[in-house]
Every structure is written in C-alpha cells, then in structure tokens.
Design goal:
The chain has a 4-stranded parallel sheet with strand order 2-1-3-4, with helices on both faces. Helix 2 packs antiparallel against helix 3, helix 6 packs across helix 9 and helix 7 packs parallel to helix 10. It is elongated and about 70 Å long. It has 256 residues and is an alpha/beta fold. The N terminus is likely disordered. It has 10 helices and 4 strands. Helix content is 57%, strand content 8%. Helix 9 links the parallel strand 3 and strand 4.
Length: 256
Amino acid sequence: MTDKKNKRVLGDEWLDWDGRKQEQDTSESRSTFLYLSLVVLALFVVIVLLFWYLVLPRFESFGQGWALVITGALGAAALFLVAWYIILVVAVVGNRRYVNVCLTRGSRLFFIMLPFVTRLAASVGISKDRLSHSFIRVSNELAGPGKGPGPVLVLFPRCLRADIRSRARELCSGYEDVRLHTAPGGTEARKIIRDTSPGAIVAVACERDLIAGIQDVAPRIPVIGIPNTRPEGPCTNTTIDTDELKAAIEYFLTPR
C-alpha cells in the first residue's frame, strides 16, 4: 500500500487499489459496449451451432423426432439472442423507449454478457472502467421515462468535491419531489433505497459502484447512472457535470 492510498477512505469497490495512477477520464460512448457485445453474441451463436453439430448425431440415433427437437430448441435459442440484440440496438440508437418492455425480462442478459464483454475489451486495450462507462450509457438509454410512485432519489458518493456537492445540493433543492442522500457505500445505499422507496434513482458514483447498484435495482426501479471523474484518483475530490445531473432529474420528473 502506498501512503497516498492510506490517506484515503476507500469505497468497497476500490479496496484492491494499489495506489497507482488511475485513468482520469474514463468516458466511453455507448457504441463501444454495443459493438463488443455484438462480437460476444456472435461467439455465443457459434458455440450453440457447434454444440448442435456435435450432439445431433447422438440424437439422430434415438430417432428423427429427437433430432428435430434439439434442432428446434437450439435454433430458437440462437434466434432469441439475435432478436434480443436487434431490439436492444433499436431501443438505444433509435431512442425508441416503447420497445423497452421487450427488454425488461431479458435485462439480466446484460449482466450475463458483461463479464465476457469486459474480457474482450481488455484484450483490445479498453479498461474495465471505460467498458463499464459505456455499459452505463447503454443502461441509461433503457431507463423508462417517468417514474413510479415515490420521489426521485439522488444518491451522492462521499468523495464528491465540496463545491460540486454544494452546487448539486442547490440544484436538487429546486425540485419538490427529489430526495438527496449521500451513500458512503453499497450497504448504505441499499438501506437508503429501502427507506425511501423511490420511484426512480439518479446515482452519482464511479463506474464500479454504479454497475453494482444497477444490478441490484434495475429494472425494478428505473436508474440513471452518472459516472464521476477522478482527477486525483478514486475516492477523493471527484467531480460531475451538474448539467447532466439536472437533465437526469428532469427526465424522470417530466410527464410523458
């Protein structure tokens, strides 16, 4: 551990940080996750077809009916993955949120694919934080408009720079149906969510915390994640664009 790390109170997701310099700007467009997930999806389909090729002779030995059953089942699985991806791209790129209902049940596919996409990204020189940033941008596009019963909950990390925090608090105070809380970590954030019963969440944090939080609550509660920037490294004096925070709050508060 370096002295620099020892002076910080690190969040749960940064406990393995060795004090080395981190990327200050992890911005990455949503297209990065979409392109890499397409490659992963293609690999999944190839694996399904290879499995079909290898097991088909065994099923044919039990009769043609069994061969048709396995062919139909694996074909349906491959078609489902392709159709799901097409709907995802239409929803994200075309901003056609009315198709999000088709993705609600399949949203866990995001998190099933995420580790594979992360490994693929690492192999081409894209860091985990940058890939996570891209994933969050895709997830934000799928957050349904409007909110459920309950306020809009805005969650801040404890590491937000003082002047940014003050400006953001002032911004949030201008909305009647917004509740602002600081969550030192994931456990505290979950407790705040249980106590507040929000209709929607706007969460400010690093990509690592946002990924964990989105996994916990989406799509049950619509979430927009705003990744912070870390000019001095993780867990100290982080910043955000308050205009992005304002846009996220108003997105949930604007009737549609």
